[in-house]
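Note to self: keep these together.
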Amino acid sequence: MDYDLYDDQALVDGILNNDRRLIEYFFNKKCSKLFGYIIINVFDNNVADMKELANELFLYLAKDDWYKVRQFHFRSSLMTWIRVVATRFFQKKREELMEKSSPVALSDKMWQDQSASISLDKRIDILAALQKMPNARYRKVIEVLDLQDVRPELLAEEMNITVDNLYNIHRRALVQLRLVMGRKEDWI
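Structure:
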């Protein structure tokens, strides 16, 4: 189907009816410029990628059987409305992240529990690779989940995201780490 030809009413109806293809189109294509704007203007290029933003916004809007989307009353275009809703949502998320986050410093403290299982050479390699990762959020997820062995539920709560979304971020973070390390294996 050519969803580009759909008007706002058809898009909203498809979303409310949980049309999977239309929802994928809406969040991955229709909102892609919006996510680019948010990455640059709300997060100052310090956020993972458009997929992560699409996932976060989807979870927010889909909550309570699309309650937020049901509040759209066609007083403006759908994209104008979604731009306002998404910008406010991500500004609030950024403020929450800034309140909860402390500067991530790689120190010997994070290695205390793993000192017996990770050799010095491997520690140096991992530290160097983590420092090369362009996304600070990805670094934090790998450091906390893989190196500090914190339960995913605790990190998800700290980051104000769902555990499922944390696993998606973790998967993308491992891919980025693998690329930074110059490895092509599917695992680290």
